[in-house]
Every structure is written in structure tokens, then in C-alpha cells.
Design a protein that fits this description.
Elements (H helix, E strand, L loop, with lengths): L1 H17 L1 E6 L3 E5 L2 E5 L4 E5 H9 L3 E3 L6 H12 L14 H18 L3 H30 L13 H21 L5
Antiparallel strand pairs: 1-4, 1-5, 2-3
Helix pairs in contact: 1-6, 3-5, 4-5, 5-6
């Protein structure tokens, strides 16, 4: 069961890194993609798979135009999330929220490793707290849904794919546990 959950999460991560992202080309470069060779010209904006974009950023050839989450966006999400009491009112988040959160923290870590930056340190500390509390709150709502015996279809459009995978895995575990401990409860 855990293996299946791990496989689903790995597939979601792979899907994320293959999605196109817009880059600004900083210097001319020729690259080869599975679809063929591509000439990058300084100053142009183009969509490439995120995996390629990240490699080009590392080489100083491009910058990603949409940097994803910011501290302000996290604060807004945190406020909305932590003021939700009912699992049936779980807020919708951007589909790639977890991957964007991870990338945001990695960007802050890169800033901190480049130089001592008290502002980046404080931003990292706040972002980490917001993300932790958002995840903990959503997990609590998911567990309450499971405990109440609700079907994920009622809120499936509000659960992120990673949460849907977790919900299904936990549901299987709980059903197995109930069956072995107290017998079938309907």
C-alpha cells in the first residue's frame, strides 16, 4: 500500500517537472529536446518543460518568468486554510501547491547559501511555518473526512492529487484495520 502511494506521488512529481513553464532567455543557446533541436535567442520568451527550464536557470541561460509562490501568497492561503473548520469546506489550492511550496523553500535556501541574508532567513522561517500549518490543517480535515466515513467524491475537486492519493491509501488502511480488529462494520 505504501509502495503504491509512493509510486503515485512520484508520478505526480514527474508530471510536474514535464509541464511547460515560460522562461526568458538570457543568452543564445542551442538545446536538444525529445521533440528536436531548439535555438534559444537572448530576449525571447518560450515555454519549455520545467525540468529543462531548471537546468537552463542553473547554467545561467534563462530565468523562469513565473516564480510560483511568494510569502504574501502563502500568508493568504494560510489565513484561508486555518479559518476553515469543516472538511466539506476545504479550500481549493493551486494544483501544484506542494511542488511550488517545495521549490519556494529551495529558492530561499539558495539565497541563504549564497550569502548571509537576514531578510531571506526570516522569510524562510515564516514560509516554513505557513507551509507546515497549511499541511497540518489539511491533513486534519482529511482525517476528519475519513473518520466520518465520507466518500472523497464529495470534496474530490478540492483535494490536491497528492491528498487524493493519501486519502485513498488511508481509507484502505482503515478498512483493513476495521476488518481485522472489529470485523466488517458495513
Amino acid at each position: 500500500m505504501l509502495e503504491l502511494l509512493g509510486e503515485r506521488l512520484a508520478a505526480l512529481e514527474e508530471e510536474y517537472f514535464e509541464k511547460p513553464v515560460r522562461i526568458l532567455v538570457l543568452r543564445d543557446r542551442r538545446i536538444t529536446l525529445p521533440s528536436g533541436a531548439l535555438e534559444l535567442r537572448k530576449g525571447e520568451e518560450i515555454d519549455v518543460p520545467r525540468r529543462v527550464a531548471l537546468a537552463l536557470v542553473d547554467e545561467g541561460v534563462a530565468e523562469i518568468r513565473d516564480q510560483g509562490l511568494s510569502l504574501e501568497e502563502l500568508a493568504r492561503i494560510h489565513f484561508t486554510e486555518t479559518n476553515t473548520r469543516s472538511p466539506l469546506e476545504i479550500p481549493r489550492l493551486p494544483r501544484d501547491f506542494y511542488m511550488q511550496a517545495r521549490e519556494y523553500l529551495e529558492r530561499l535556501d539558495e539565497r541563504l547559501s549564497a550569502k548571509v541574508d537576514p531578510e531571506a532567513y526570516e522569510e524562510r522561517r515564516k514560509a516554513e511555518r505557513f507551509i507546515y500549518e497549511i499541511v497540518a490543517h489539511r491533513l486534519g480535515l482529511i482525517l476528519r473526512l475519513l473518520q466520518g466515513g465520507r466518500k472523497p467524491g464529495e470534496i474530490a475537486d478540492r483535494l490536491l492529487p497528492e491528498e487524493q492519493a493519501l486519502y485513498e491509501a488511508l481509507q484502505e488502511v482503515l478498512n483493513e484495520w476495521r476488518g481485522r480488529v472489529v470485523g466488517y462494520l458495513g
